[in-house]
Amino acid sequence: MSSSSSPYSDLPLKPIPGDYGLPFFGAIKDRLDYFYNQGEDEFFHSRVTKHKSTVFKTNMPPGPFMASNPRVIAVLDAVSFPVLFDTSKVEKRNVFDGTFFPSVKFTGGYRVLSYLDPSEPNHTALKSYCLSVLAKKHDNFIPLFRTCLSELFIDVEDEMANKGSAYLNTFINQMSFNFFFNLFCDKKPVDSTIGPKLFDKWLFLQLAPLMTLGLPKFLNFLEDFVLHTFPLPSFLVKSDYNKVYEAFYSFSGSVLDEAKRFGISKEEACHNLVFLAGFNGYGGLKTLFPALIKWVGLAGEQLHRQLVEEIRTVVKAEGGVTLSALDQMVLTKSVVYEALRIEPPVPYQYGKAKADMVVHSHDAAFEIKKGDMIFGYQPFATKDPRVFDSPEEFVGQRFVGDQGEKLLKYVYWSNGRETDDPTVENKQCPGKNLVVLLARVLLVELFLRYDTFTVEAGKVPLGSSVTFKSLTKAAST
Ligand code: HEM
């Protein structure tokens, strides 16, 4: 049995509280509680209260008949959660979406990188390839993203002029799609039918088991049956997927040629590239950016004034939006980390115990058996009140200064600590630095153009929605 040596090593060993209920019925009950009777936050809160523990047993959706085994051990605090980052202790094979694994027909017959465990040789090949592609494209990140943002703000201003408000998610989707297509293919799609809606349809069919559409109550059972009981068929999106694949195959030649060096065929590389662009990249940004704008918008004018001051002063002194300028913007950086902390875009992580082990919460130690599925609901770990003061509050300055920076190791959005880096041995997101960079540039462009803004926030399946209600143009730059 392995056990981590830490300040928590002396804690008493306790049995893991909770139960799975009756076979089949227990899983259905938990699924209905999770989606309809309680909602995800209350689902976890009520169980933490009932069991007086942040580590407990529960079923996780979707369950029957989508997942062969819905039983998990939930880890919901900042201390126990990182066991999921330790690939010597947990197996990450086919758990990217949770307890179910979408058909490989969605990805051209290949198990793409996100589903591979680091012990599989193909993980090393594909992750090295991915890191190499991103490193080669590094110099394009800022100029390309700024061009995409200019287009976004033109569209948003048009919409504001016409309608008096602008629903931002649609524009963010278009902009994120344009960014990744251009990044890998060096141009816009020639076929104008290739756009974010194709990715949305493809993502929906794969992620439906984790979604609720927020329909009226009387439709809950119907929705539960359609979305959560059987996998939705891939043929519904086959021709759309092929169209995107062909476009990538035709235009991302130099990126695909590079794959040979890593022993990867051009076809496998291209299916992985579509997944990087469409699922990891587009899927990630379409969730992160509305949340970021929402929290910054709701934080109000005082934070906006401070960001304006920092951003415009540094950009002026540095003569532009450069990596070195971005690095000096301590408040902007902190605001991005705070958004990733308070609303992590990918809230669930899974890993199967590779051996018997002991996991600690703040208060106790628990024995987990080989083969058990460990599940982390990240918003609870990154809002752990024993690590973060006022954890439910968006505090823009939270990560500023020496004390603030010490908290970065508790920011987990990338499936690793913010102080760690993605490698071929771990499952940390290889887009980590890119994502943080883009989020900073988004704030910089926003506050170079505008002094302040107001928003209306809402919910969409798997994230937040945000609408600009007002935008006040910059009085001075
Ligand atoms: C806001 C945007 C993003 C978020 C929130 C995000 C989050 C994550 C998370 C949580 C994981 C680990 C999942 C797990 O195994 O449990 C992951 C893995 C991964 N991400 Fe990201 N990601 C984002 C953007 C990107 C981008 C831009 C890329 C590349 C272009 C990327 C590529 C990947 C890949 C390839 C993996 C699998 C890593 C491995 O197998 O070792 N992600 N990401």
Sequence-ordered SSE layout with sheet pairings:
Layout: E1 2-3, E2 13-14, H1 25-37, H2 40-51, E3 55-59, E4 71-75, E5 90-91, H3 121-136, H4 141-163, E6 166-167, H5 168-185, H6 196-207, H7 220-228, H8 238-251, H9 253-257, H10 266-299, H11 301-318, H12 323-328, H13 330-342, E7 348-353, E8 357-360, E9 365-368, E10 373-377, H14 378-381, H15 401-406, H16 432-449, E11 450-460, E12 463-473
Parallel strand pairs: 1-8, 2-9, 4-10
Antiparallel strand pairs: 3-4, 5-7, 6-12, 7-10, 8-9, 11-12
Helix pairs in contact: 1-2, 4-5, 4-16, 5-10, 6-10, 8-10, 10-13, 10-16, 11-16, 13-16
Pathway: Secondary metabolite biosynthesis; terpenoid biosynthesis
Binding site for heme: 429
Organism: Acer yangbiense
Tell me what you see in this structure:
This protein is α/β, with parallel strands linked by helices and 477 residues long. It has a single domain, classed as Cytochrome P450 (Cytochrome p450), CATH 1.10.630.10. It contains 16 helices and 12 strands. The strands form 3 sheets. The chain has a 5-stranded mixed β-sheet with strand order 3-4-10-7-5. A 4-stranded mixed β-sheet has the order 1-8-9-2, with no helix packed on it. α4 crosses α16. The N terminus is likely disordered. The structure holds protoporphyrin IX containing FE. The site of protoporphyrin IX containing FE has 26 residues, from α3, α10 and α16. Pfam families: p450. Pathway: Secondary metabolite biosynthesis; terpenoid biosynthesis. This is Allene oxide synthase.
